[in-house]
Amino acid sequence: MDIKKPSSGGGELFGQVTLGGEAGRSGDRFKVNATDIGYNGRTPVNFFNGTATIHNETAQDTRGWDVSLFGNADIIPAGAISYNTTFEASNGGYDAYIRIINASSAVTARPTYELETLVKNTSNADIAGTRLPLNTPFKYEMRVRNLGQGIASNSVQLIALLPANVSYISHEALPLGATLVGTTQVSGRTQVIFSIPTANLPVGMTTLSAPIVINVKTTSDCSVLRDACSNKLEFQPSLSYDLGGNPAADNGISTVLSRKKISDCNPAPTTFYIEDEPCGQFGSNTMPYCASLTLDAGAGYTSYKWTKQGQAGVLSTERTYQVNAAGTYILERTGGPADCANTATITYNITPRSGSDANHPLRNNPKVVERQTCNNTGLEYLQVALCGNYVDLATGLTLPNEKNCMV
Q1: So what's the pLDDT on residue 289?
Q2: Does the pLDDT of residue 265 top 80, yes or no?
Q3: Which residues contact 328 (CB under 8 A, 6 or more apart)?
Q4: 245: which of 239, 252, 380, 383 fits an S-S bond (Cβ 3.0–4.6 Å)?
Q5: Cα–Cα distance for residue pair 126/132, rounded to 1 Å
C-alpha cells in the first residue's frame, strides 16, 4: 500500500479475519514488510491460533474463527512511502487457514486544510444572516490553516466564485505570500482565484492565517431581484490543491469547501441578504408606456395578483401581465421562502410617452404608407404595406411574408 508516513511517526492499525488456524500448529505467519508479527498470545511462528484478540485484551476462544485487531507505531518506519502485508501458512511448519478479511490503516503525511469565510460591512462588523441595502460595499474575509502532517505538492488555489448580484471591486493587501491569479466571468458571476505557496501553510497550524480580503458591492439593479430569494447571497469559496497523485484514490487533486465558522462541524456557505424593499416602491418602477409592455412578477411565488389604481377588480393572477395603457399598476405576491422576505408589493408607474420619446422611430421612413393617432392616448401608429417577401426599413428589421400582403 502506498502511503507517506510523517517523519514524526504515527500509529497504524491492522485487522484480520481468518477461518481454520489452529493453536497447536506452527508455520502460519502474518508479516508487515519483512517483520513477523506476534502479540497477546500470538507468536511470530503461529499467528493464526483460533482466538479473537483486540489489542491486549483477554483472548477469546472462537471455535475456529480467528479475529485479530492490533496497533503498533513502530512497525512502519517514519518517513516510509509504502508497506506490504503477507500471509504465510508453511514457514517453519504447516497450518492451513482461509483468509477472509485483511484491513489496515496508517497515518499519512498529507495536508488537512480548513477554510473559514466571514462576511463583514465596511466597519468590520459581521453581517452574516442580516440584510444589506442596495448598492452597498462590503467584504469577504477568508482564512486558512493546515491541521495535517503534510503539505500539498504545489501551491494551494483559493477559488472564490462570487454570488450573483454582487460586483467585485478589489482585493486588499495579500498575506501568506499569496498572489492574484486572475478574475473571470462564470455564467454571469465573477470568479476570483488566488495562489498560496504551500510553504506558508506549514503542518500543524493551530490558528487561522491572516485573512485574504476581497471588497465587493451589492447590486443597484432591482430588475435582477424579482425572483424569490434572488436577494439571498450565498458564498462558499474553496481550496484546491495537488497531492501529487498520492494516494491515487484522490487522482492527485483535492478540494476543501469553506465553513461559516471554523468551529462548525461541516462546510456551509456564508449567507446574507439584499434588502429589496425599495424595489417595490413607485419611484423604482417608473417607465414609459409602449405597446406590448409585459411586467414580470418573478419566479418562485405561490400566488400573484395584479390590479390597477382607480380601476375595480383584479386584472390577472398570472406571473406576468401585459400592460395595455399608462397608469399605476400594483402587484401583490405571496409564498416566497420566509428567510428571504422578498418585498410582497410592487408598484409600477407606467407613464405616457411625451416629446420626442413619443414619436415612433420609423415615423419618417419612406416605407410607411399611413399614420394614425389614437384619440385617447395620443400615441401614433404606423402602417407598412408588405408586398413580396420582405420590406427593408433600413433598420435591420425584416417583416415576414404573410399571405403575400400584410398591413
Answers
A1: 84
A2: yes
A3: 282, 308, 309, 310, 347, 348, 349, 350
A4: 252
A5: 12
pLDDT above 70: percentage of residues in the chain: 89
Grid cell in block for residue 334: 405571496
CB count in 10 Å sphere of residue 155: 20
* Distance, CA of 228 to CA of 344 (rounded, Å): 10
The sign of the CA dihedral 92, 97, 99, 103 is negative
From the DSSP assignment, how many helices (H) and strands (E) are in the chain? 0, 31
What does the alpha-carbon distance between residue 35 and residue 248 come to, in Å, rounded to a whole number? 26
3-state secondary structure of 398: strand
Grid cell for residue 4: 507517506
Q: How far apart are the C-alpha atoms of 141 and 214, rounded to whole Å?
A: 7
Q: Is the pLDDT of residue 94 over 70?
A: yes
- At residue 5, the pLDDT reads 64
pLDDT in tens, 387-398: 877 777 765 544
Please say if the pLDDT value at position 379 is more than 80: no
12: three-class secondary structure by DSSP? strand
401 pLDDT band (50/70/90 cuts)? very low
Nine-digit cell at 361? 422611430
Q: CB of 272 within 8 A of CB of 126?
A: no
| Pairwise CA distance, residues 228 & 338, whole Å | 10
Of the two residues 189 and 406, the one the predictor is more confident about is 189
In the three-class reduction of DSSP (H, G, I as helix; E, B as strand; rest coil), residue 285 is classed as: helix
DSSP 199: G
Cell of 218: 451589492
Residue 326: C-alpha distances to residues 290, 293, 301, 308, 358 (Å): 9, 10, 26, 10, 13
Cα separations in angstroms, 130 against 35, 133, 203, 232? 61, 10, 36, 10
Q: What is the pLDDT of residue 355?
A: 67
The whole-model pTM stands at 0.70
Rounded Cα gap, residues 213 and 177, in angstroms: 14
Of 59, 104, 99, nearest to 83 by C-alpha is: 104
